[in-house]
Amino acid sequence: MQNEMTEKNNSELPNHVGIIMDGNGRWAENLGLMRSAGHLAGVKTLKQIIKTAVNINLKTLTVYAFSTENWKRPHTEVDFLMHLFSEYLEKEKRELNEKNVKIHFIGRINELPQSLISQAHDAEEMMKKNTGLKFNVATNYGGQDEIVRATKKIAEKILNGELKIDEIDAKIFESQLDTVGDPPIDLLIRTGGDLRISNFMLWQSAYSEFWFTETNFPEFTPEEFLKALKDFSKRDRRFGNVKTSQTKG
Ligand code: IPE
Ligand code: IPE
Ligand code: MG
């Protein structure tokens, strides 16, 4: 199925896929396990999804790993997640590098535990020249926060005379976002059954296609991922315009 996707539908592949990896906790609770077991299982799923993304030559993948609101969770869960991110990087960075993946952390990275900041930085350094899948990990990320930070950077440029108010447009604004240089999100996938975006990629998903599934992230498979991509390839995206066949009238 992967080959079929690569060969036949490459031109209809989204340039940028976002995934809200949700439902880890509920998956574990349904099985009578601790929520942490769900997060561990979620990491396994993520590895499979990355493998698939690399195989089909996807350009950009952004995953939601931890939101600016997730600090509200019990200290033990937050702590577990921070350790899990560290462990993931330690174990996976070599393989990601071998796969020509270019990792990039987005969000308020400087507020993460110091050891994780260094590891994230090291991984980015290691992969900075890679040309394959651009893999953004949204960690301590919030779409509203990203927009506020971008606004502050722009205000600073105005104050120091680098920019005039009249020069601000969508392009300038985008250049101050964490995803600078990446295409907008074409396809936004959310697992876990909830129909919301929970502060993910607010600017970048202006014209995204959405794909929701009841499947909790630990049970999300490469097959279902490919199903979402296939569904995307059939969507009629108009971007505010009318269909090409209707433009004459
Ligand atoms: C998503 O799964 C992972 C993170 C937010 C870190 P959840 O932990 O939100 O799982 P549910 O939604 O409670 O099942
Ligand atoms: C979104 O999931 C954040 C991540 C997947 C990292 P949440 O579980 O935090 O979202 P809500 O609370 O259900 O909106
Ligand atoms: Mg959740």
The radius of gyration is 19 Å
**Could you estimate the helical fraction of the residues in percent?**
40-55%
Q: Ligands bound here?
A: 3-methylbut-3-enyl trihydrogen diphosphate, magnesium ion
Query: How many H/I helices?
Result: 8
Shape: globular
Distance, first to last CA? 41 Å
Low-pLDDT runs of 5+ residues are 1-9
Order of H and E elements: HEHHEHEHEHHEEH
Strand content: 5-15%
Q: What is the typical, i.e. mean, pLDDT?
A: 95
Task: Let me know the number of strands.
Answer: 6
Side-by-side strand order of the widest sheet = 3-4-2-1-5-6
Class inferred from helices and paired strands? alpha/beta
The major sheet is characterized as: 6 strands, parallel
Short description:
This protein is α/β, with parallel strands linked by helices and 249 residues long. It has helices spanning 2-9, 24-30, 35-55, 75-98, 114-127, 143-159, 170-174, 222-233; strands at residues 16-20, 60-67, 102-106, 134-141, 187-190, 209-212.
